[in-house]
């Protein structure tokens, strides 16, 4: 049911929202063919998909800014679904990238803190999806590092530890999780085609993520109606009768 408030001429529509919260893999997801763009397209006229991705961010910084993105006590701020997608930066090697690196135990604590904050803000655990970082293509990412004048600053085995920790948080908190790290390496397949530079997603990787995320999101938004009538259903003689209701169709 779309929320509305009385306004001159009818109800003011408040569209449901899906919030994507993460690092660069979320920030870039609205690019052409991106997983966030695909999600927005799938949900058009049902809800808004908000991109709150922050390139380079880790869970320490994310935990600090989350209350600025979703406020407590405001029902209109409460999303119908939230993805939390961090770990690609947290898992950076401390010696090579101390600014982004977050110790594994703190990563766990930060993820739990964000899930608990959402619950206190009125976002039930049933609306939350955690996403593990994808696997790291070390050879390709090392080339990117060398171009930036630094040594390889991430290892796939370490990323796997953070992915495993994310899975455990999801189990402990009772929320859904998409284990991207494992799925992309299933049956020891070559996952390099899923990555554009060893770290970020390629078009194929975006498609892969969306195909596995959509079933988790769909069950959270399946009851949402199409907002406002289909054009053929608008009353021709007096369209106000069709268009100034509560917006559901």
TrEMBL record:
Keywords, A to Z?
Hydrolase
Residues spanning the signal sequence: none
**From the UniProt record, which GO molecular function terms apply?**
hydrolase activity, acting on ester bonds
Q: Which InterPro entries match?
A: GDSL (IPR001087), Iah1-like (IPR045136), SGNH_hydro_sf (IPR036514)
In its keyword annotation, does this UniProt entry include Hydrolase? Answer: yes
On the tree of life, the source organism's domain of life is Eukaryota
Its function?
Probable lipase.
> What family does the entry list?
Belongs to the 'GDSL' lipolytic enzyme family. IAH1 subfamily.
- What protein name does the entry list? Isoamyl acetate-hydrolyzing esterase 1 homolog
What's the source species for this entry? Callorhinus ursinus
């Amino acid at each position: 049911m779309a929320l509305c408030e009385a306004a001159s001429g009818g109800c003011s529509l408040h569209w449901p929202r899906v919030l994507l919260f993460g690092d660069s893999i979320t920030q870039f997801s609205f690019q052409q063919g991106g997983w966030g763009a695909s999600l927005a397209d799938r949900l058009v006229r049902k809800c808004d998909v908000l991109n709150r991705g922050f390139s380079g961010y880790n869970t320490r910084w994310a935990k600090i800014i989350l209350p600025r993105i979703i406020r407590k006590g405001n029902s209109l701020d409460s999303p119908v679904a939230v993805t939390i997608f961090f770990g690609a930066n947290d898992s950076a090697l401390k010696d090579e990238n101390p600014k982004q690196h977050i110790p594994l135990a703190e990563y766990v604590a930060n993820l739990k803190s964000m899930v608990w904050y959402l619950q206190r803000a009125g976002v039930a655990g049933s609306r939350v999806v955690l996403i593990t970082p994808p696997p790291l293509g070390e050879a390709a990412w090392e080339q990117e590092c060398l171009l930036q004048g630094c040594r390889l600053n991430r290892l796939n085995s370490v990323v796997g530890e953070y992915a495993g920790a994310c899975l455990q948080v999801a189990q402990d908190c009772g929320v859904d999780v998409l284990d991207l790290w494992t799925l992309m390496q299933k049956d020891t397949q070559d996952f390099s085609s899923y990555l554009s530079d060893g770290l970020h997603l390629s078009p194929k990787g975006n498609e892969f993520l969306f195909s596995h995320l959509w079933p988790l999101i769909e069950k959270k938004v399946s009851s949402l109606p199409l907002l406002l009538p289909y054009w053929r259903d608008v009353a021709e003689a007096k369209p106000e009768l069709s268009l100034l209701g509560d917006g559901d169709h």
